[in-house]
Amino acid sequence: MKVLINNCYGGFGFSKKFEEQYRTLIEDAVGRHDVALIAAVESFGLDKASGNYAKLAIANVPDGCEYHIHEYDGVEHIDDTWINISIDELRNGLSEDRIELALRCYSIKIDKNL
To answer: How many C-beta atoms lie closer than 10 Å to residue 114's C-beta?
Structure first.
């Protein structure tokens, strides 16, 4: 999946023109990986969609993985991807699909509440 990040010192943000045209889309986005938001940024152009102190870029994360965006002085990168598994999955064994997904992520997190 694609994830929007900022690739320069400053901070993540959209240009005024992009915000004016896509305000509702930005407000309704489910996260930086929102498919409609990514498509809008790509069609608008990464440079034109970037705010004054931003340089938007698209990072790729394996489909089905959770992710964490690490930020330092405004520069962002994906520093961890993982899947959550339940205690029952540990006891009963992961399905082949879940094993394949786990192999594409950096780590596995055990969620005691699943």
So the answer is: 10
Q: What is the pLDDT of residues 34-65, one digit of tens each?
A: 999 999 999 999 999 999 999 999 999 999 99
| Rounded-to-integer distance, Cα 86 and Cα 54, Å | 38
The arrangement of strands across the sheet holding 66-72 comes to: 66-72, 75-86, 107-111
Across the strands, what pairs with 59? 3
Are the C-beta atoms of 9 and 73 separated by less than 8 Å?
Answer: yes
Taking a C-beta distance cutoff of 8 angstroms, is the pair 105, 62 a contact? Answer: yes
- The pLDDT assigned to 114 comes to 65
Three-state DSSP string of the chain: CEEEEECCCCCCCECHHHHHHHHHHHHHCCCCCCHHHHHHHHHHCHHHHECCCCCEEEEECCCCCEEEEEEECCEEEEEEEEEEEEHHHHHHCCCHHHHHHHHHCCEEEEECCC
One-letter amino acid for residue 37 of the chain: L
